[in-house]
Amino acid sequence: MTPELEQTLTLLSSHRSFLGYILMSRGHPYSIIRHSGAIFEGEHGRKYARAVGKIVESVQGSLEELGGDGNDGDDVRFLRIRTKKHELMISPDDKYLLAVLHDPSTA
Amino acid sequence: MSDSVQAQRRAEIEAKKAKLAELRAARLGRQKSPATPPPVASVSRRDVDDLINSLVGSSSRGNGIDSGDLTPSSSMPGTPALGQPTSLPGPSGLNTSGSGRASRQSDFASDRGSLGTTLVHSTSGTDHVIDRVMTPRSVPDLVDVTQELFELPQRERVVYNKEVQTMTTEPESPQVYEDEIRQRVLAERDVEAERLAREKELDEESVQLDKEIEEEIRELSEDELAGIYSAPEFLQFVEHSSKIVQRALNDNYDIVRDYTIGTETGGEDSEGRVKRVCEFSDDRYVKNRSITAVDWSPKFPELSVAAYNKNPAAVNEPDGIVAVWNLHLLQEPEFVFHSQSDVLSVTFSPFHSNLVFGGTYSGQILLWDTRSKHVPVLKTPLSAAGHTHPVYSMQMVGTQNAHNLITSSTDGMVCSWLVDMLAQPQETLELVHAGHSKTSEVAITTLDFPANETTTFWVGTEEGNVYQAHRYDRAGAKAGLNQYDVYKGHSGPVMGLHFHPLSGPVDFSDLFLSCSVDWTVKLWRAKSLAKPSTTPQTIAPIYSFDEADDYVYDVKWHPEHPALFGMVDGSGKFDLWNLNTDTEVPVVSTPVGSGRAINKLAWDRKEGRRAALGGSDGRLYIYDIGDMAVPRDNEWNDLQKTVSSVLGGAQSNGTL
To answer: Which regions are annotated as WD repeats (chain B) (predicted)?
Structure first.
């Protein structure tokens, strides 16, 4: 864990409406690299991680279907899911995934 | 019929299995790509594979049993009578031609099946009874039981009546059979439903498998974590994605906001028309530094750039820092550039949105590219060919196809550069003032070109005078400093000089403002280029704004509103003046930040609603002036009146 990485994540966590983040590896299967915030602790955090994994895979799958047989399929870059209480933001790349939960009403 | 249904099901599951395998292979491929951390214990994958196999395997076995149970035709071939009803093409033809309802189709199937089993059961092998059984089947009463059966028995009757003709039909009560058959039908239906349910379960199971693979969240071991943390691509990912998320976080707009819910109005929103939008500061890069220059991106209105001097507490960090800030990303700069010397001036290239130029204390001109890393992509050599003194001022002049970067240093050197060739200046011009009483050196602190002018410019100097200079020889004037015209008014170094931007029906491009450490801002009218002076003369300012109580570090005309300008001073005030409203006091005076000096001011390039203020506390403040940025139609004419009235005042003052 380099200090730069630590600092970047601290910076992210310092946002007013921030509730927590999960850093995951998009391997097979998904695995949690790191998480923060009370909401992502323990079993509940794993549940969240599973849900996030499922969402990303399903969206990516749909995109691939839409792309057809050709290799011009699209990739997910950013997902923003607004729920009644929170907002979940997911930023995936090929190998990793960052999910941040925040409460927009406090922003 | 049900056989084919079964087969179809099996095929589906087979396809699903193949898809699963494919999926797994794809994942495997992803994992195998070299940089991936080595995680995925193959053992666990094998576990999952076993799980899949056991589930899929067992279910297919169960399926086989089901089909044995449920396909009546397979258990039937011994009875000749039965072969016919099952092989009858009639019902299936009816099915397809009949109503398209799926439920109906299954009804047919089950009904036929029930007929078959009924026979087997009741006959128990005796041909005689078979016949007897067959007969009631042909009784038309059956038709009344279910409509779907209507066609079926009719056909059968045609076939069977011939063979069975000899038999005397005993009018046994058809009711009994009917009841029995009905019960069979019901029972068979139940079985059928059960079978369907089980198949459904099977499907779900395979889907579930899929899900389980997705859902499985693995714990990483220490080694794997260490591997991930040390992977450069992981660092890059975190850097990149956290930036994206922060932009979204800083959006501060709740997209599901309900405007029907009333909230208390008033409060801070209504106070003052100049509002602080945000402030940029960062402990990592720009701690203990002061801002020396600011600029806005010509392409992206949310991007601004600030140059910083050295951090005396951190000897290992680069002396000069340039940070590009994004209004949507408050916590850290979008880009950070390094310099070996303090950066004193900075400008975005107006023609290439990726390029940022900086002038340094050492005299080097640096070019950074946002597509590149921290270090400059081009820099001028430290030689006598270019600048060897601090470069406090630079400006890009010209057009998209022919532009130069003009830079000036405090030894009086003015260089012109081609932006893609910083190895040596295209032109150099040394400003000297031969007739000066003390020194011939012209210490340039600031420089500006009038709007649409590329060859003649004005410079502010450390001694306080402002001079005109030409880049080239021109109608009666030699290249270099115009020694005859001395704009004398400031009693301290000139910190800022800005010509009126050309933006309206009346041309004010000969007006310029200057500010100085003598606590004043002065308004000047530049001498016409068409009539060069031949004898030394002193030009006085047409107006002086003496409101400030500290060094005035920068002054800038508003880009849209002709009568509006802003100034920043050493006490941390941001004053907004509207010459049409008042020439004695600023229309709005805003204390900025902690009260430490504000070094630079820059209006955004589009509408001029926002001002970027660079503080000596290292913070870049962004202020919004709201509707004050929007000029009324008569603003230009009003300014003309204002200028002529102050001109009259200045002249009358001069005569006194």
So the answer is: 487-534
